Amino acid sequence: MLAYLDIETSYDGALTVVGLWRPHGGLSQWVSPDIDSAELLEALSGAQALYTYNGHRFDLPVIHRRLGLNLRRLFASRDLMYDCWRRGLYGGLKAVERQLGIPRSLPHLDGRDAMRLWAAYVDRGEEEALELLLRYNREDVENLDLLRSHLSA
Question: How far is the C-alpha of 82 from the C-alpha of 42, rounded, in Å?
Answer without folding.
Answer: 27
